[in-house]
Amino acid sequence: MTEDKIQKHFMEEFPTEPPVSEPERQYYFIQRAREDLKKMSEAAGRPLTFCVTTFGCQMNARDSEKLVGILEEIGYIEEPDEEKADFVIYNTCTVRENANQRVYGRLGQLGRIKKKNPHMMIALCGCMMQEPEVVEKLKKSYRFVDLIFGTHNIFKFAELLATRMESGDMVIDIWKDTDKIVEDLPSERKYSFKSGVNIMFGCNNFCSYCIVPYVRGRERSRNPRAIIREIERLVADGVVEVMLLGQNVNSYGKTLEEPITFARLLKEIEKIEGLERIRFMTSHPKDLSDELIQVMAESKKICTHLHLPVQSGSTRILEKMNRRYTKEGYLELVRKIRAAVPDISLTTDIIVGFPGETEEDFQETLDVVRQVRYDSAFTFIYSRRTGTPAAVMKDQVPEDVVKDRFNRLLEEVQRISAEMCARYEGTVQRVLVESVNEHDESLMTGRMSGNLLVHFPGDASLIGKFVDVSLDECRGFYYLGKMTEGKTE
Ligand code: 5AD
Ligand code: SF4
Known about the structure:
Layout: H1 3-13, H2 24-44, E1 49-54, H3 58-74, E2 77-78, E3 87-92, H4 97-116, E4 121-126, H5 132-141, E5 147-149, H6 157-167, E6 171-173, E7 194-198, E8 200-201, H7 212-216, E9 220-221, H8 224-236, E10 241-245, H9 262-270, E11 277-281, H10 290-298, E12 305-307, H11 315-320, H12 327-340, E13 345-352, H13 359-372, E14 376-381, H14 399-422, E15 428-436, E16 443-448, E17 453-457, E18 466-474, E19 478-487
Parallel strand pairs: 1-2, 1-3, 3-4, 4-5, 5-6, 7-10, 10-11, 12-13, 13-14, 17-19
Antiparallel strand pairs: 8-9, 15-16, 15-18, 16-17, 18-19
The protein binds 5'-deoxyadenosine (5AD) and iron/sulfur cluster.
The site of iron/sulfur cluster has 10 residues, from α7.
């Protein structure tokens, strides 16, 4: 259909103009997509289903909950098996190159399935779509994709979907950046008792290896009142634990008209009655303030877990990474945090093989790992991302050298994290029961404040409740245990 025809069609079906303001405009398009879907379901002779597949980080997981909320509002039914769904959405990640390769591989497979299902649609969104080369490649070689949008206009999903349903053409809408934050759209939580809450979007740090600032745009903080209101609503709906999400939560609030610190925001959230646990990620070491450490030490609700990416232990490499702290500065920060919150669990991200990394630099990283003794660490092989300053740096490290360092690092990280995990053996811990164990239905899985998991006999009625569990046997990075009494609430 041409633009004119679409417009005419819209006007006949929906005599009123779409509202200009958000989120009203999206609610209007949800209604319209609902009508469109009804017709499509009638043609298919059955209800139509969807499957959202998420790649990457917690921010993406939260975005996917928003997509699911909108799809359910439109009337789609969830189908966990991607190969059976009528509408498949990939919410993509591009932080490392292999994430992109995985998407192309799976997309090829989806294309073959689509040939057999005339009702099938495919949408792609998320960070990978913000890369112009990716969209070019999709336009050229993956013509069967129906809808492509990016990270800045995810709130427009209903509008884009209605446009696709009514025009029948491939719809592509990518924004370069935005200063817009649209509140109060539908969202469907994966867990009834816990939820992620975005407090900010984007990143201004430009670590030299990282593509995130280019695909997620400039840092924007949500208004504290909107955050509090969202959490209050979640709590009224049964949520007891929130995870505050941002690329760099420690710089929350700096760009607001009325600036507020992350520590102050936490103090306000702490006051919300009925909320039991507060988590947050990710913290950048350069912005972690004494005020925050104090708030963590005094809080009854903030969990005893801090994810503090170090990336490298070498001050020389940290400078090339544009991290803006030194090895000594990082270690001093860890000392201060441990002094204030002695039982804190520390986790981190580490990159090996950054351009120019020597064996001596790598030894500095091992030294930090040994000194800090992380509860767990995500270790990554450096991935060259086009457009980032590091991609054009000289002295890219040969693959076999990187692999060897990576294996040595992993061994050290795992040895220490098993020792750290074991330090709780024989104690009783309060856990939030999250799920039935995947491998053994007689066991439940609970999460401790420090983020460790314990599996113990119980039944599904415990999900979402806090219970006390004795940690009988450490199995490397999790525990087997048993409940010491009934539900604590
Ligand atoms: N190569 C490897 N790891 C990366 N990360 C970010 N960019 C890259 C890259 N180009 C890692 C960092 C970050 C985590 C989310 O991903 O460790 O903290
Ligand atoms: Fe990437 Fe650095 Fe921003 Fe984290 S802080 S998202 S590593 S640029």
